[in-house]
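Reposting from the mailing list since nobody answered there.

I have sequence plus structure tokens for a pair of proteins and want to know whether others read the tokens the same way I do. The first protein:
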Amino acid sequence: MTPSTDSSPDSLISAIHPALASALETKGYSQLTPVQLEMTNEAYRDADLLVSAQTGSGKTVAFGIAIAPTLLGSAERFDAPDAPLGLIIAPTRELAIQVQRELEWVYAATQIRIATCVGGMDIRNERRALERGAHLVVGTPGRLRDHITRRALDLSAIRAVVLDEADEMLDLGFRDDLEFILGSAPKERRTLLFSATVPRGIAELAKTFQHDALRVATTTTTEQHADIDYQLMLVRRDEREHAIINTLLDTDSKSALVFCHTREAVRHLTARLVNRGFSAVSLSGEMAQAARSNALQSMRDGRSRVCVATDVAARGIDLPNLDLVVHADLPSNPETLLHRSGRTGRAGRKGISVLIVPEHRRGAAHRVLTLAKLTATVRSAPGIAEIEERYRRRILDKAASAADPDASEADFVAELLDRVGPQRLAAAFLRQQLAMHPVPEEISPLPPEALQLRSPGRTRRDKEERGKPREPRGPDMQDGVWFTISLGRKQRADPKFLLPMICNAGGVTKRDVGAIRIDDTETRFEISAEKAASYAWQIEQAGSLERGIRITPAGDAHGKPRPAKPKFKPNGKPPRKQRTAEADHGKPVKHKKHKPKRPA
């Protein structure tokens, strides 16, 4: 966690347990965030707490400060570990591992041993770690319950229990597990609930498992995410993915997080971004823990710049230098919007949260923002001209900041200038730099009146255009060759994203592609006769297409469709014909005689 740079009261490092104060000073904490400051209050020293604080406010360090006196007392180091003294419960594997790493440096001077118990990891290794002894256990509800049930985790000596992101754990359906774990811990323990919001479920949990809990609110709803600039980007409904790509290109952010509703959407968008030249990784619940850890690590060390994730997979993660969050799918409620956006603008850093909203969903966007008490700047998606202008500025800045040639380079630089000339040399540098940047997508401009955040009904134009058949891209080519791609209307296929995919797969340009005809489950398109043979060879090569998508030759040069395949039932057998009196010409239908079973 990066130290806060916000203005706050005078530093109260001296009010923190001495064993932790030295670690915070070493880390550069000259000031504390509001929630960390509250945890130094002597009135909270032995009390149960219900704490609400915005995401990214330094809650991990805060509850580390809060439970230190309870775990250590007046000692500055832990004795040899026996039964665990503290328990931290987190909703996801990533958050639990992140909490463990954070508390390891906070408690570095105390010789603490921390064990993690999270789903997706080897349970035998976790059991061995518990047998060796741990002062503090960090885990997810399901795996902690497994260890308690199997008598591998002894809670008899627990002095403090912390529920991190308690509201998220209830949303994920962990209430039964939480009640089992809290019911297995000693009643005289301290219980601290940290939650971004305090819905009814959290209040009921606090009433059941806490004793006269003190309510600590370090921020009001109007102050949430003050360091985040919210932008609402209205686009045509068929250009949503184009807007996502151009938004990622039109930014100087070092890393970005893109949220989708479903795992399938994450897979599709990640494949598209990688195909367009982005260093992108995905994060979803279906991935193994090792793959999820590798994806997060690649974002942390800069090998990947974009992470496409579902809401569940990204709960509680903290990525350094994350200054852009893109909502590829509109959040369904204000809590989801605040949680997603809270991945940026953390601990005093500035961030941008962009909602990609199709025109017909502006009303839903307005409602979510209103319920979240947020104001967003309405804007259109960046176009090709804007992005190319940004590219040119970067190239100029890069050239202007280059150092003068040193002694080992001077002779060759002089030779280049003499043989090539400054103009051709500059042109070569320009082309090289442009080739390193993904090509931006074409975006249809919206009329000025469309860029208004309101909840309109369907316009006359929408009603008139609704249901019209899609026009083919262009006239048939002479002697063109037809191919089929396994995407159709049911997969929301559109020429605007099909055309770049078709070109990239076969190494052709837009001029080599003729008509594009979209059917329900597939799309037929035309390739010029002179490029057809090389195109057919190219699509057979591995890696030319996204996973799960196929391109095959189809029909003839005149575009005659192939005969329709017979429809089969899910079991693979042809459907049985229905016999009717009309079909049988009045003949009686013969029924099989019932044969009685033989007696045993």
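The second protein, same order (residues first, tokens after):
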Amino acid sequence: MSSLFLNRQTSDERKALIETLHQTQSGHCFICEKVLDLQLHKDNLDVDHVIPLKTGGKDDPSNFALTHDSCNRSKQATNLEVARLLQRFAALKEALEPDNRSPNLGDILTQAGGGQAELSFKLVGDQIQFTLSAVGDQAIYTVPVYLDELSGFRYFFVKLPIQYLRHDDRINPRAIGSNISKLVEEFYLKRPQLHVPLAWMTSEGGKSAVHVFDGQHKAAAQIMLGAKAMPVRVFVDPNPDTLITTNTNAGTTLKQVAFDKSVQRHLGSTLYRDRIDRFRTETNRPSDDLAFSERDLVSYFKGQSREMKRYILDAVRDGVTSSADNKLRDFIDYGGRGKERPLSYSSIDKTFYSFFIYQEVLDTPLHFGLEDGQNPRELETSQLIRLMNVIAEEIYIGKFDSDIGTDKIESQLQKGTNFPLPHLRAFRMSKEEVLYNWLKFVEQIAYTYFVNTGMPTQKERLFQYPFPEQLWTNIRNFVRNLAGLPLWANKDLSETVFGGKANNSFWETVFATGKSPQGVQVMAKGLNLVEMMK
């Protein structure tokens, strides 16, 4: 809504208003909080309402702010105070990108000066007494301790200063997603939080950190808005394995929270490590013993055999995804809703992990072949990472531009927009149905190599056999030659072959014959794998 006040101002009055706002804001943009120079930025300034008129803001100088015009046009909220908070979050997210991660509650707490203190307490019967000395409050507080009849865990409700709260990234490894913006706006409008965060502490030693493992988005939004204390439900001495399992089930079988698949895999990997520790303890084995197999674990936890198998495979997937050596992970969107990266985690899960990770449990001891590099799971992981690196180097690194992203590329091509050809190629080769088919050729190339050399090979365990360097050369040549095919750069195909969602059989036909099932000529001829490996 336009401003009558600003529209009625003379040029001198507007200049004076800008200078006053500039001085009030200490020479900084209201949104990004970076320096705003009245001379250098004179043609790139905006004066806008802090609180929009449509939500009750006043149309007078008390409700105006000075911003860079680019910040005002790209702001994530109509309310400038909320936009400023979201810009701070965006800056934090950018600062963490070199670590290949996104912010979590722990980062928000650190930014706000929280997460450092431990709670001093005494458990007396069905009560807990504590002080908040770290924030200068020496009073002794007493609250009742309850017993959860289902789990048997003790718990209490308390409002704690943020100095006493920490994020538990083991039980809850989720990063804070884009929906934080909606929560910040919701709480800014003074609408209450309906669910309190969940946390846990230990009763040993009379002093404990309070670890938040659920409700981090709502807690983070309130802290971003300036909350200095938070109501929490704190479990005392809970079984961490139970909490991890409960949190995992909430995001998988129960669908109570929207866990990304990558988070589910990470939690499964954590549960696998916990089961290994439990197995050692309960069978009186040394803490570093690995002389047992995946099959032994499944048999021991026989009431959870299906879950154990999932945990084992999740550990392999997570080992590949989280490896710092994996160059492809910079091009994977883990949330599944972004428009900056070409590959979704779901596509990675349905292709790389489904094709190249052995889906059954192993009978060999966990330590088998570790010393000479022949351990089947280690080989599987390292060779899958190497394959991803080959693909990243040939298709994505220095070629795919995240600033351009993936949003509506084919429809923009149809409207005459031009894209750099390496970017267009990477985008098209990343489509799940396309990726599915050409990765099947990689599998065929590897399996055929072993057959031709006379080595007995189980196809489903392909990546558990060491690949000779010649095979890696063949795979790289195939990927490079595939990326060089003209179809990826053919803009005319945006209305036919690439114009809509195709299935796997569609691209199987294209790669086999050179034509689509509808007869559209896509390539000069079908692929010849022998020629593609040269």
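Reply #1 (J.P.):
I read it the same way you do. The domain at 105-238 is CATH 3.90.1530.10 (Conserved hypothetical protein from pyrococcus furiosus pfu- 392566-001, ParB domain).
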